[in-house]
Amino acid sequence: MPIPAESDRALPRSLLRDDAYLALRTGIIDGTFAPGERLNDAELGRWLGVSRTPIREAIGRLERAGLVQSKPGSYTRVSPLDVREARAAQSVAAALHELAVREAVPSLTASDLRAMREANQRFTEALNARNAEAALGADDDFHAVTVTASANPVTVTVLEQVTPLLRRLERIRFSSLDGRGSVALHEQIITLCEAGDADAAGRAARENWQALLPLVDLVDAAADSQAG
């Protein structure tokens, strides 16, 4: 897909490298940049209104997250969806979100619980509207509460690396009503957190992220079918 017109996504000149990373990551997840599409630093810089330096830094982070592939002096392109990497990312994300919830429960406040409920309400509304982008944003906000409250910087760092790969899968799932099971699991997590049951809340968080496995299997089966 061609780079969008600058007027479509123009951002302030003071754009930070984190904003460039988030903009490019969103473009890959939402399909603006298709698998296999080549990425040009200069074009991306004009699109976002920044120099090539934050673009190169953002691409480096995306490459570590498995969303971009590059060969120095040859190409930089959007990675195809790798099922093996998706399985590994799902396993790590499920374990780390379980850990985050377990660690967060003792320090969660009433404000935290309200934020989780509000995020899940927005998540529900986005699913009903089949708005995948809004659903992903609300889901991010929901899980960010416990990840932040866990105060574990290693968890934050590793989740930043593995989550973008999974968001490509979740966008497919959240484009339909297939993600409705997550609404109930979110409610269960909130209830258990409020009750102070860290172990059960952690298990519910793991179950929530394991719900992606059937979608990984479908992608794997489709890839095998095409190969055959």
Give the arrangement of secondary structure elements.
Blueprint: H1 6-9, H2 17-29, H3 41-48, H4 52-64, E1 68-71, E2 75-78, H5 83-104, H6 110-128, H7 132-150, H8 153-174, H9 180-195, H10 198-210, H11 213-227
Antiparallel strand pairs: 1-2
Helix pairs in contact: 2-4, 3-4, 5-7, 5-8, 5-10, 5-11, 6-7, 6-9, 7-8, 9-10
Would you mind describing this structure in some detail?
The chain is mainly alpha-helical and 228 residues long. It is built from eleven helices and two strands, in the order ααααββααααααα. Helix content is 72%, strand content 4%. It folds into two domains: 6-78, Arc Repressor Mutant, subunit A; 83-223, GntR ligand-binding domain-like (Four Helix Bundle (Hemerythrin (Met), subunit A), Up-down Bundle), CATH 1.20.120.530. The two termini are 27 Å apart. A two-stranded antiparallel sheet has the order 1-2. Helix 3 (41-48) packs across helix 4, helix 5 (83-104) packs across helix 8 and helix 6 runs antiparallel to helix 7. The model has no long low-confidence stretch (mean pLDDT 86). It is elongated, with a radius of gyration of 18 Å.
